[in-house]
Amino acid sequence: MTHQLSSSVLKLVHILNDCHSHPGTEIARELGLSRTAVWKIIQRLKSFGAPIQSHPKGYILHEYLSLLDKQKICHKTQNKNYTLDVFESLDSTNDYLKNKENNANCPHFCLAEHQSHGRGRMERSWISPFGRNLYLSLSYTFSKDISELSGLSLVMGVILAKCLESFNPFPNPKLSLSLKWPNDIYLCSEKMGGILIEITAEAHGNCRTIIGIGLNINMKDASIKDIDQPWTSLEHHLAHTVDRNIVAARVIDATLEGLECFSQNGMNAFRNDWQKYDMLHNKTILLKTSRGHISGMARGINELGHLLIELPSGVIQSFSSGDTSVMKT
C-alpha cells in the first residue's frame, strides 16, 4: 500500500531523533494513537530500511533522520505554481507521475523517502535508502516539438549544479560541482546525483516530460551495498546533516525558473554554463553506444546538446546518446 508521508510519521521520527529509547506507550500517548498503530508505523518504516530498533523497553533510532515535510517545503518555495506529493515509499517517483493524469498548466512534483525500484538511465537501478537523499520527479509540459527538447538533461544538470552551489559555505567554499555528459552530477570528482528524463509527445504540439532527479544528501557511510562506483554526498563535504526540506525547496524553485528560461530561449541559454561545469572537456574519453565504442577527445557540445568528440583522425563528430567515461592515460 502506498502511504503519503503523514504528520504521525513526522512526529514519531521527531520523538526518536534524540536517539534514546522511547516506550511504545509514551509514543502512542504523544501521537494520540494506539500502541498497535504505532507498532504498524514502526514496522513499515523498518521495512523501508529506517534504522529503528525494537527492544523490550521500546524503540530507538540509531541515527538522526531529517524527514521531508510537505508544509515546510511549500512554505520555503518562492514559486507557488506547482503541485507536490510526498510519500513514505514508492516503486519509482517517475512511474508514479507517469500514471497520474497530466495537468499541462500546473507542474507536478513528487518526492519519496524511499524507492523500491528507483531507476537511472538504461534501466539501471538507483539505490534509494530511506530518509537520506532526494528522490524527486517532475511532470512538466512544454509547448514544443519533441525535437526542440534535445539537451534537456544537460539543462537540468546546469540548473541543479547552480542550485547545489548555493549550499557552499562562505567564505570558504567546499563544494566543487561538475557535470558528466549526458546526465551525471559530480561533487568534488565523485558522483552525487543523476537525471532521468522521459518524454511523451501529446496533442496540439505539446510534449509531456517526466524529469527524475536523484541527489545524495545525507548519505555519508560507505557501507551501502549495491553501488558499483565511487559516490559522495552533501553531508560528506559539509560535515553536517543537511535539511532536505531546504534542498527540495531550492530545487523546486530553481527547476521551475530554469525550465521557463529553457522554454523561452532554448538550449543556447545554457551552453556557456555547461562549459563551466563540463568535466569531460579536452579529456580523452570513451563513449559507449548501441553501435559500439568510440574513443577520442571531448570537445564540448553543439547547439543541440550533442557531445562533440575529436577522433584520432582529427574529424569532430557529434553524438546524441551514450555512456561516457574518462580514459586513463
Q: Give the number of DSSP strands.
A: 14
The CATH architecture of the largest domain is 2-Layer Sandwich
Widest beta sheet: strand line-up: 3-4-5-9-8-7-6
CATH class of the largest domain: Alpha Beta
Whole-angstrom Rg: 21 Å
Strand/helix succession: HHHEEHEHEEHEEEEHHHEEEEE
If you average the pLDDT, what whole number results? Answer: 92
3D shape: globular
Major sheet:
7 strands, mixed
Poorly predicted runs:
none
CATH topology of the largest domain: BirA Bifunctional Protein, domain 2
Structural class estimated from helices and strands: alpha+beta
Number of helices: 9
Helicity range? 25-40%
Give the topology, please:
Elements: H1 7-16, H2 24-31, H3 35-47, E1 52-55, E2 58-61, H4 70-76, E3 83-87, H5 93-98, E4 108-112, E5 134-142, H6 152-165, E6 177-180, E7 184-187, E8 190-201, E9 207-215, H7 234-238, H8 244-265, H9 271-277, E10 284-289, E11 292-301, E12 307-310, E13 316-319, E14 323-326
Parallel strand pairs: 3-4
Antiparallel strand pairs: 1-2, 4-5, 5-9, 6-7, 7-8, 8-9, 10-11, 10-14, 11-12, 12-13
